[in-house]
Amino acid sequence: MKRTCQDFEKYGHIVALLPEYVDGAGECVVVLYDDGHREVQPRAMRSMLERCARVFAHSVPLVRDCERRLFGRSRQELPLPFTPYFVLVPFRWRAPRVRGDTTLAYVNFIHIESFVPESGGIAIRLKGGGRLSIRNTYESAARRFQDGCASRDHLIAVFCACGLPAIA
Fold first, then answer.
1. Per-residue confidence (pLDDT) for residue 23, from 0 to 100
2. How many CB atoms lie within 10 A of CB 112?
């Protein structure tokens, strides 16, 4: 498959990947874009993440392995940095329906503006005015945001050390 600049640019406009269960279709991923467009992908979150990784010639297991070494902890809830403008930060999105159910949503770091308290939890305020209610505590959400920031900064440092332009 031939890749174009438009393919890469599209990923910078992705705000979030949200796991949803749709009657009749089963496990799906709702892709939110910064222009308000919503797209339902009839696939599991794992295959959606693998698809995103392939676009940038990455592998999700290898990216996770690098993040484990960077942070010194082995949790699946670490950011997935593919490019400086596409760093996916995981947040708890929904209660699991069954054991092994995907409950993590991934929000693109560059679209996070702040966290605001809500009745019964907190929400992510997005650049552009949107909000996403999440199931994390404020401390947990802030820690994940800091992890996303550290991942992005590390990726930019690697690009600069290799002599590549760091596109922010």
1. 80
2. 23
